[in-house]
Amino acid sequence: QVHLVESGGGAVQAGGSLRVSCAASGRTCSDYFMGWYRQAPGKEREFVAAISWSGAVTDYADSVKGRFTISRDNAKNTMYLQMNSLKPEDTAVYYCTASASGTNYVSNPTGNGIRYWGKGTLVTVSS
Fold first, then answer.
1. Nearest C-alpha neighbor of 111 from the set 57, 58, 44, 20
2. DSSP conformation class of 41
3. Among 1, 53, 60, 90, which is least packed, fewest CB within 10 Å?
């Protein structure tokens, strides 16, 4: 069992930056692929980014590529999402996820089948 807790959300103006974190407990973080999904008000949940066990492989949604950076520190059992050049359309609840299989992040825009989820942290970007 893996317990995930997000932190670092908040309000920021367009063009600003924010870093959200995900602390994992219960199992060794390095045993899992991890990723971020988000859900904006009234919209379907969507994939943001994912990272492999070692951190060597990452993947991003086209909408955040070049602006967001996913990383992890397995010694701290923590994953991060650095968000730069934020836009109002980035406003959403951001969810941390973990899965034993990296294939769960391939062509999985809504995260169906991913076993472990945090409760989410709200990011609000004002124009």
1. 44
2. T
3. 1
As a whole number of angstroms, the distance between CA 45 and CA 104 comes to 15
Q: What is the pLDDT of residue 45?
A: 96
Is 86 within 8 Å of 15 (Cβ atoms)? Answer: yes
Quickly tell me which residue has 């893996």 as its tokens: 2
Under DSSP, the state recorded for 65 is: T
Q: Are 125 and 67 in contact (CB under 8 A)?
A: no
State how far the Cα of 21 lies from the Cα of 71, in Å rounded to an integer. 10
Neighbouring CB atoms inside 10 A of 42's CB total: 5
CB 78 within 8 A of CB 71: no
Kindly report the backbone phi and psi dihedral angles of residue 4, in degrees, each rounded to the nearest multiple of 5, phi listed first: -120, 135
Cβ atoms 47, 63 nearer than 8 A: no
Instruction: Give the H/E segment covering residue 93.
Output: strand 92-99
